[in-house]
Amino acid sequence: MRLLLGVLLTIATTAAYERNTQKKTLGTLYRWKQIDFKYPTEQERLAAIANGLFNQTNVIPLGIERWKGRIFVSTPKWKRGVPATLSALPIAAVEESPPLEPYPNWLWHNAGNCTGLTSVFRMSVDHCGVMWVLDSGQVEAFETPRQLCPPSLFAIDLETDTVLARYPIPDEFVLQNSLITNIVVDSRDARCRDLHVYIADAWRFGLIVFRQSDAMFWRFSHYTFYPEPLLSNYTLHGLNYQWSDGLFGMSLGKFHLGERPLYYHAMSSSLEFVVNTSVIRDPTRVNDAVAEFKLLGESRGPNGQVSAAAVDRNGVMFYNLISYDSIGCWNTCTDYKNKNRDIVAQNTRTLVFPNDLRIDHEVPQFVWIISNRLPMYQFNLIDPNEYNYRVLYLDPVKAVENTVCQYIC
């Protein structure tokens, strides 16, 4: 608690502390016009730029996680010139636009033969302090895609900064043109001995499950993983584009009476669905579970596309409304209806395309968000004179005050 208070006081004294103009709940920890990296020497940085190994224009932050005094940010290698794909920054911000420090170290970003990190999308930290890292293995996806390595899970001990294991996803579960995009970790055991990882395939509409105890993978397919055609057309700040992304956002509900729900949705959709995790944790149900994946409730509307979502300890789901520059909330003990959903943050400057969203394991908890103007990046419309990328945070308890999400079950 003392650390967090110090962080807030530090941020408040810098230009990086941007307040949400609507509900005064959203804070900015870091912001960048362009991303830089912390090289061992300035000479090495300049050499990387000269050799085309580092091009600031092509670096975009995508995934966010937090463990104790650090946050972790992914920078996928979607375009040439991204020298590192996973970095760490301190929670105690001392400058608003710091260079990213490659994590665990530079060697893991220069390793050959697929032994190191290739192109990380997102991460999920379990309550035992292990960060599960989803590496797509593909580079230059927005140029000429090259699959250098199989998509893999890395397990990294955040107390020792040691890579514990790498688990390549078997070829049989990675289809042609698969886009392995998101990850959530599920463990109920105090020592994480029952750990499972759920992985979304947005382009081939699948849910891949990993069981740590025997390093086994399996894959579910279901029609609820598909996008809605009319929700595949987007307009964001005057930019019209089309994405047909399927299964993307996943969040775990509260554990109750031996069961825990997984809420999920396609990116290009206005609908939320749910399945009990006892179903997807059972590989024998792969071909015998069609009726277990269920529509949760009412549509979010014609521009109700959501990227990431997460549920806090009080059972409140927070989710990124990417077409509204907003973060929404829903109390999971109520019906999934319009009357039970609300907006906790909205800002047309700082929340342009809120992409990733995670809730940490701290007491009290905080919600962490990356906003990154992804469509503008994809179409080379990023203005280097503006602040384009932000690490944002909010207090989930204060955020839902005086909203319908404050309802106590």
Automatic annotation (TrEMBL):
Pfam families: MRJP (PF03022)
InterPro entries: 6-blade_b-propeller_TolB-like (IPR011042), MRJP/yellow-related (IPR017996)
Location of this chain's protein in the cell: Secreted
Signal sequence extent: 1-16
Keyword rRNA-binding: no
Keywords: Secreted, Signal
GO cellular component: a single term: extracellular region
Family from the record: Belongs to the major royal jelly protein family.
Name this polypeptide is given: Yellow-h3
